[in-house]
Amino acid sequence: MALTKQTKGSQTEVTFTIAEHEAPSTAPILLLGDFNDWQTNDSSCQMEKEGNTYVKRIKLKNGKRYEYRYLSEDKGWFNDHAADAYVPSPYEGIDNGVVDLTTVGEKKKVVKKAVKKTVKKPVKKAKKDDLKKIEGIGPKIASILTEKGIGTFKKLSATSAAKLEGILKEAGPRYTMHKPGSWPKQAKLADQGKWAELKKLQDKLDGGK
């Protein structure tokens, strides 16, 4: 998935992109959010198929944050892994993605002398994978697992379902409803880059169960 922006004047054209292997099925996908009042009956919300991707381009006013999600006509709602941020939706345990244009167009002050004095060697960041590609794992659970040292597909594939259940139980009652039994198997396929096999497996799952 990808979220790209091109600013011109007081507006930014935002391009929402979903790769074919990231879509839950081959059914049409709607892009719904604050910018179209979440109207599912609006045909203009449907994403267009361009080659092996689903694409939708919309112009949004700068200086605001817009919540949104995707809706597959036969598989239901799902989030954008490339969103700028995530916020709780009105429904318990479900987050909405965010397009953040609050700082777009702001001029940044550059102080050359200060930059020279404060330049440091880049710190190598620990490798992290997008755990949200595993069906059943949302932004909150991905963050919880990463904090527990399970931030890659490889580490998740080597973690037992029992240990994952313990982590969810420790995180609070709202997470105990999730069933992580398939997560290690999904993570192993993702770690090996076997996206087609992962999608085939996910088509048989229901929320990761």
From TrEMBL:
Identify the Gene3D superfamilies for this entry: 5' to 3' exonuclease, C-terminal subdomain, Immunoglobulins
Query: Taxonomic lineage per UniProt?
Result: Bacteria, Pseudomonadati, Bacteroidota, Flavobacteriia, Flavobacteriales
* GO MF annotation, one: hydrolase activity
InterPro entries the UniProt entry points to: Ig-like_fold, Ig_E-set
What is the protein named? Glycoside hydrolase family 13
Key words, A-Z: Hydrolase
